Amino acid sequence: MSTLWVGTSWKMTKTLTEARAWAEGLREHLDTVPDGVQPFVIPSFTATTTVREILGEDSPVLLGVQNAHWEDTGAWTGEVSVPQAKDAGAQIVEIGHSERREHFGETVETTRLKVAAALRHGLTPLLCIGESAGVKEAGGSSAFILEQAAGALEGLSEEELARVVIAYEPIWAIGEKGRPATVEELVEPFAALGAEYTRRVAGLLYGGSVNLGNAADLLGIDHVTGLFVGRTAWELEGYLELLAIAGRS
Ligand code: PGA
Fold it and tell me: Is there a contact between 223 and 244 (Cβ–Cβ < 8 Å)?
């Protein structure tokens, strides 16, 4: 069985005190992380080093950042580079989340540049793809997400591709305004992604309103090898429960 990735992005939440409490709690419960499950956590930039220090250098929990620039250094006010993220202890770079595409001008081209930058520095690109409700209603979900993925991964060798994790996160299913996807709705997009990427990438994750009630069913969908979670994992208890569910899957 392939490794199941189960991780969370905290988005723009948590003070350092809250980040510390969550990370210390996880460290105390590391013995409950099931075999075959790869945990990861993606705090705000401000908490990266704090979480790294708490988890320790050789933690089985991978640490990520929610974005990074494609250039290594220079006059890019407000941005953080992949080498800086790595220096702060990150091993994963989240790229192309729909909130960044919608509000911060992320495009297929910038996702491609950022995937390349992460790989260049030995970090794992976590590429997020997903279609809007409009695209879904028009019946174009699979074609749309395959195009987003192909654009971001263009030109990679098989060795490089094997280090990429893809998270399919339909925009209509994400966050407070989203509605949880049904298993039936996800079968076709994952079949399409699986036909192209299963066994070629490190993981094919689902994200969007994952909760304790639907996690097991989502992990049962063909080609799904993990969950990328927001709200349900922001309380440590929820995250630990998701890890346990993955362990039973
Ligand atoms: P959610 O967020 O689990 O709170 O819907 C998912 C995401 O944006 O990755």
Answer: no
Percent of the chain residues topping a pLDDT of 90: 99
Residues with C-beta less than 6 Å from any ligand 1 atom = 9, 169, 174-175, 178, 207-210, 228-232
Residue 202 in contact with residue 118, Cβ under 8 Å? no
Q: How many CB atoms sit inside 10 A of residue 64's CB?
A: 28
Query: Based on the structure, what is the number of domains in the chain?
Result: 1
pLDDT confidence of residue 1: 59
Catalytic residue among 106, 169, 196, 223: 169
Q: Is residue 248 part of a domain?
A: no
pLDDT at 2: 81
Q: For the segment 111-126, what is each residue's pLDDT rounded down to a tens digit?
A: 999 999 999 999 999 9
Residue 206 pLDDT greater than 90, yes or no: yes
Tens-digit pLDDT profile for residues 148-176:
999 999 999 999 999 999 999 999 999 99
Q: What is the DSSP string of 204-231?
A: EEEESS--TTTHHHHHTSTT--EEEESH
Instruction: Tell me the H-state helices in 56-209.
Output: 82-87, 98-103, 108-120, 133-137, 141-153, 158-161, 183-197
Domain range for 222: 4-241
Q: Find the CATH number of the domain harbouring 100.
A: 3.20.20.70
Distance 234 CA to ligand 1 centre (A): 10
